[in-house]
Specification:
Layout lengths: L1 H16 L2 H13 L16 E3 L2 E3 L3 E3 L10 H6 L4 E7 L12 E4 L4 E4 L8 H8 L6 E6 L8 H12 L5 E5 L14 H16 L7 E5 L5 H13 L4 E4 L19 E4 L3 H14 L6 E4 L5 H10 L3 E4 L1 H6 L2 H17 L12 H5 L7
Parallel strand pairs: 3-4, 3-13, 4-7, 7-8, 8-9, 9-10, 10-12, 12-13
Antiparallel strand pairs: 1-2, 5-6, 6-11
Helix pairs in contact: 1-2, 5-6, 6-7, 7-8, 8-9, 9-11
Length: 361
């Protein structure tokens, strides 16, 4: 991973001088062409886990949003991630919201996006996922902005990718598609999960279903989501998507609309993660996302209740060398805390982290 880190250190001034979306496009192109060196795989038995029928070589994954169209999933796995999630993918291609729509908040180590599910659509992405892969690849599903039946869009996504995805994520928490977050409400969520359950039963291959929720849910809403997940066909929950809240930010882009990710999201997303872990009694595997930028923040997510993790925004500022830094650090923290394997530490401080106040979030 030294070579990848060195390459990023050279490229970063150029990338950060560009518009954020253009810089992202160049990064995808570099990965697609093999210009970013792959990592030498390291065996870390203490970080391996089996969750919802999948064997994760390590708990650190690449969050959806980076590889929207499944162009570089294999290249991302070779960087050292334990799994990769592509998308968000909608049934029909859509261009998303007008540009500019992606903003780098360097002073805050954060990103604001209002992309709007820009993607190539089910069929194009499905074609790119055909064939063998060197690791776990999940598909993040969304609904078209102009869809008359958004639940049907998620059902169509499950059917489209059932035979190809290692798992599917039902993304009902993006703030950039008007009205989408309403699907987190009790009645609409129960209806969505019922129809997804029917879709899964009708398939020969039945990949796990994960639900991705917002960090901005009230305590009552979070409780209702927990009840629905335990009763429905949900194998795991991703906590969380970006936030529409605005903590104190220093960047000149602080006033941009859209979802905020990165360092300022960490406290809020981690508190919601811990609360959800307690609400579900540890019965559902949780994926901790939001503000992970080093081994310490990754370790905190695990102690809050996350079995596995995802990151994206921190790569903008730290580059791919961060992957190995976090995994090496997690191994050391496990040993220092007296744990033999990572699952022993999951949720060990959930009560304390759930009770933390909202200062700084």
């Amino acid at each position: 991973m030294y070579l990848a880190g060195f390459a990023f250190s050279l490229a970063r001034p150029v990338l950060h001088a560009l518009d954020a979306e253009r810089a992202h496009g160049l990064t995808i192109a570099a990965l697609r062409m093999g210009l970013i060196p792959a990592a030498a795989p390291r065996s870390r038995p203490e970080l391996e886990q089996a969750l919802f029928g999948l064997n994760f070589p390590n708990p650190l994954g690449l969050a959806a949003g980076f590889d929207k169209n499944a162009e570089v999933a294999e290249a991302a796995l070779h960087l050292g991630f334990g799994f990769v999630e592509v998308g968000t993918v909608t049934p029909r291609p859509q261009v998303g919201n007008p540009q500019p729509r992606l903003f780098r908040l360097s002073e805050d180590r954060a990103v604001i996006n209002r992309m709007g599910f820009n993607n190539d659509g089910h069929e194009q992405v499905r074609g790119r996922l055909a064939g063998p892969r060197p690791g776990i690849v999940g598909v993040n599903l969304g609904a078209n902005k102009d869809s008359e039946d958004r639940v049907a869009d998620y059902v169509a996504g499950y059917h489209c990718f059932a035979a190809l995805a290692d798992y599917v994520t039902v993304n009902i928490s993006s703030p950039n598609t008007p009205g989408l977050r309403n699907l987190q409400g009790k009645g609409e969520l129960e209806s969505l999960l019922a129809r997804l359950g029917e879709a899964r039963e009708s398939e020969k291959v039945r990949p796990p279903i994960l639900l991705k929720i917002a960090p901005d849910l009230s305590e009552t809403d979070l409780e209702q989501v927990a009840v629905a997940c335990l009763a429905g066909p949900v194998d795991g929950v991703i906590i969380s998507n970006t936030t529409i809240s605005r903590p104190r930010l220093r960047s000149g882009h602080a006033g941009e609309s859209g979802g905020l990710s990165g360092r300022p999201l960490f406290a809020l997303a981690t508190r919601q993660l811990a609360r959800f872990y307690l609400l579900t009694g540890g019965r559902l595997p949780l994926i901790g996302v939001g503000g992970i930028e080093d081994a310490e923040t990754a370790w905190t997510k695990i102690r809050a209740g996350a079995s596995v993790l995802q990151l994206y925004s921190a790569l903008v500022f730290n580059g791919p060398a961060l992957i190995d830094e976090i995994l090496s650090g997690l191994s050391m923290k496990l040993k220092a805390a007296g744990y033999g394997v990572v699952e022993e530490a999951v949720g060990c401080e959930a009560e304390e982290l759930a009770a933390q106040g909202s200062s700084g979030t």
